[in-house]
Amino acid sequence: MSAPIVFIDGDQGTTGLQIHDRLRHRTDITLFTLAAAERKDARRRAEAINACDIAILCLPDAAAREAVDAIVNPAVRVIDASSAHRTQPGWTYGFPEMTPGQAERIASARRVTNPGCYPTGAIGLLRPLLQAGLIPGNYPISIHAVSGYSGRGRAGVEEHEGQDAVNAPSFQVYGLELAHKHTPEIQTHAGLAQRPIFVPAYGAFRQGIVLTVPLELRLLAPDVDGARLHACLALHYADAAHVRVLPPHEAGVLARLDPQALNGTNDMRLSVFPNVEHGHVLLSAVFDNLGKGASGAAVQNLNLMLTRQ
């Protein structure tokens, strides 16, 4: 039997380049991309996507929708790394550790939508706690996250690594209108009854994310504290290969969080920081925005899908 053909559509951007780099030496698949002269040829792209077994789309949202619309071969399976289909019916959300059975659903799916980088951390923290009833669905959630500048794609990389890099800002908070496109995705897949407040930022480092969610214990049930929140997350991810919940004795000695700590991996580290005196708890996630937040997640989903190819 010949190796499955995996077509990367859009392998020139930050996510596509890293996916290509992670797959290019593998012998269990036939990796295919278009030559530069063919990348904007709609007919050639349609031919390529209909001739593959699994297509990985690393495209802007509109182009990703066009690529999916061009599929007429029912055997073609898709991993979409854009945000075009993350809340759309008929698409399987590509976060294998999110809920029991999610990895199996991804393995057998025809259409998989890769999670966004920020939502991976927010949903990874919140979904288990909401499912367990430790956080009510109507809790007023606020999320703050700082990503490396590669989260902006080519524009961010050029700004910080191009000719005018000396003028690049060291830190910038954005999304001040509180309408970031990842917010509906977070609300939907975390299981929140109301829209969270999400405030993102970029730092002057290439990749990596620190995401935090503060909680007030007075707004939770009387028996919910930092220990219970930690125990819930630890149980949920006990068998997860790529998500680790930091034990309390390790979290307790931390003075800071490094967004670059897991760069180059497909891992995510979750922590719970309680302040008993003030009744506050801080939840945190650290991961690579181009790893577990993008290319690593896509390859993890591809590996699951290949078990059913």
TrEMBL record:
Gene3D superfamilies registered for this protein in UniProt: Dihydrodipicolinate Reductase, domain 2, NAD(P)-binding Rossmann-like Domain
Pathway stated in the Swiss-Prot or TrEMBL entry: Amino-acid biosynthesis; L-arginine biosynthesis; N(2)-acetyl-L-ornithine from L-glutamate: step 3/4
Keyword annotations of the record: Amino-acid biosynthesis, Arginine biosynthesis, Cytoplasm, NADP, Oxidoreductase
TM helices/strands, residue ranges: none
Catalytic activity annotation: N-acetyl-L-glutamate 5-semialdehyde + phosphate + NADP(+) = N-acetyl-L-glutamyl 5-phosphate + NADPH + H(+)
Gene Ontology biological process terms from the UniProt entry: L-arginine biosynthetic process
Any GO MF annotation of the entry: NAD binding
Domain Semialdehyde dehydrogenase NAD-binding: 5-106
Pfam families listed in its UniProt record: Semialdhyde_dh (PF01118), Semialdhyde_dhC_1 (PF22698)
InterPro entries reported for this sequence: AGPR (IPR050085), AGPR_dimerisation_dom (IPR058924), AGPR_type-2 (IPR010136), NAD(P)-bd_dom_sf (IPR036291), Semialdehyde_DH_NAD-bd (IPR000534)
Active site: C117
EC nos: 1.2.1.38
Subcellular location: Cytoplasm
One GO cellular component, as annotated: cytoplasm
PANTHER family linked to this entry: N-ACETYL-GAMMA-GLUTAMYL-PHOSPHATE REDUCTASE, CHLOROPLASTIC-RELATED, N-ACETYL-GAMMA-GLUTAMYL-PHOSPHATE REDUCTASE, CHLOROPLASTIC-RELATED-RELATED
Family under the similarity heading: Belongs to the NAGSA dehydrogenase family. Type 2 subfamily.
Role of this protein: Catalyzes the NADPH-dependent reduction of N-acetyl-5-glutamyl phosphate to yield N-acetyl-L-glutamate 5-semialdehyde.
Protein's recorded name: N-acetyl-gamma-glutamyl-phosphate reductase
